[in-house]
# Entry
Amino acid sequence: MEADERSVQWRAGVRTVLHAAAATGAAQLCLMEQWSEPEAGAPTHTHFEVEEAILVIEGSGDFWTDGEHRAVGAGEAILLPAESWHGFRNVGDGILHTVAVFPSAAAPVEYENEPGVVYEIGGAGEVRRDAHRALRQTRDQA
# Structure
């Protein structure tokens, strides 16, 4: 993907476009598109009570859910259950192009390597991790 004003560097090797979320005016849905370079992806994380569906548009990825791995390729989708710990990485030589959907306009996310810090994907809060994630709470605020 060519970088444009809508895309952000989400983490090393991953660019994201947020199409719908609380920050864009959505009330019940978050829709984001990602392009991951080889070996890049999303580290292990959870969305608590929110499911996530990911459609692979191009490329192939290794997706894991609660420690179990599954290969997902172009034209395939994976449903990541609520309360699960999951992530993925691009295992191909080209770009892994995905679209993720959440039934929440500000889907919560906690990363395994940042325990106790909860962000909202598409959240509109003032304290931000990046253009697409706002801080919801830390363990100290809970």
